[in-house]
Amino acid sequence: MNGVGAGSLPRWWRNRIPRYRLVGAKCKVCGRIHYPPREACPYCGSRDLEIVPLPRRGKLLSYTHVFSVPGDNRLSTPIILGLVDLGSAKVIAELTDVLPEELPNVKEVEAVVRKVEEQGGNGVIGYAIKFRPVLQATPGGQG
Amino acid sequence: MTRPEERVGIHGWGAYIPRWRLPMEEIGRVWGWPPHQFKGLNVKEKSVDGPDEDSTTMAIEAGLNALARAGVEPSKIGAVFFGSESKVYAVKPSATIVAEVLGITPVTMASDLEFACRAGSEGVRASIGLVSSGMVEYALAIGSDTAQAEPGDVLEFTASSGAAAFIIGPREGAAAVFEASYSYITDTPDFWRRALRPYPKHGEGFTGEPAYFHHIINAVKGLLEETGYKPSDFKYAIFHQPNGKFPVRVGKRLGFTYEQIEPALVTPYIGNTYNASALLGLARVLDRAEPGDLILLAPFGSGAGSDAYAIRVTEEIVERRDKAPTVDDYIARRKPVDYAVYAKNRKILVMLPR
Ligand SMILES: [Zn+2]
Hints:
heterodimer; A: 143 residues; mainly beta; 8 strands; globular; B: 354 residues; alpha/beta; Peroxisomal Thiolase, Chain A, domain 1; 2 domains; ten-stranded mixed sheet; three-stranded mixed sheet; binds zinc ion
């Protein structure tokens, strides 16, 4: 889903900002926010969208495991995909820093940037947003 | 005449430590080391990066934490220095990736620095020069490492992973200001890693006295002579921490007390994070420092060299502290793993293409 492999390097590069910074595209007609950003709104067809930053914390609504992991990411097996409600948008992304048995107790998650592809050690390394359980909160902090 | 350092301060600091920990006993179990081989290091366990982490991702999180504390518009940062000995590319800057994620690009300097464990500190000193001269308004200096060690080598007990980042800018509005800095460098063969080789080597007989102690002691003495300060003038003394005993020993030889040294000690909990080692110590001290406190910082890098800094905390520190997770928040986020998971995360496992 994050392919930076042969042939898609230019596309990966063009889309690096939403992958790095967690920004979505907000439809100026119907107000819906899409992540990853889209050229056109799939709901109302409008092409009038603006890039908006998304909240970095959200609620984990659901998750699923992927045990058959291809290529470089075999070391991350199992990959856990989460559906995260950021309030203004729902996003599907990989979860990280969490063990499968801990997942039932994970309520709140936050965005981090992690490595998603290595291309066998000889290509470009791909980085993208994942979500992890929030750090223990510090008083008054984002922590 | 005022020193250039006095025009410059730290606006934000940020830490990052991965979640996973490998206990010393587990390394001893796998390689058959008797406990006396590692008990003297004063390290309980070491931090281990996850399979999707590297020196770049750790620098990004530390950088975001530093930005959150500084409250500086990323576009005002005019230089990004990434100090590491575990860069993910041999050629292609990590600093550009960090700068792009943090929103600092495109009008900025950016480069990766290498000087074993001291490159991040060189970034701090270069940032002081750029900011004090007015060439840039703010600079970001990062030390980040997923330190390598050959499986079974004594270095494996302590080589760990972590990052620390600092937004350096004008004295006005800074949470801590520099008063002076001093560097002491020689060509010393204590530790190296040749090109295309995965693991470093250490020069027997060179690692302790001629390298670590000689360079730190001379950098700190130089700083004390230049400023006229005595060890007792400092509230905190922070040294590079290759293990849990060297920083205490070098500090005592320089006339500092355990009470001045202890608050910065992170290696007993997470091992030696190389470029982040002393800088995470500084971050942990800034997490708790009070206005007016005077801090001595002395990172060290093999090869070899040390920098000594005198840093004075300002009133601004109070409202910056809670704007990002503390070093102790990351230390507390710990999950022990066994050597098998460590081998998987660290890609020590040999996996052939399917
Ligand atoms: Zn729409």
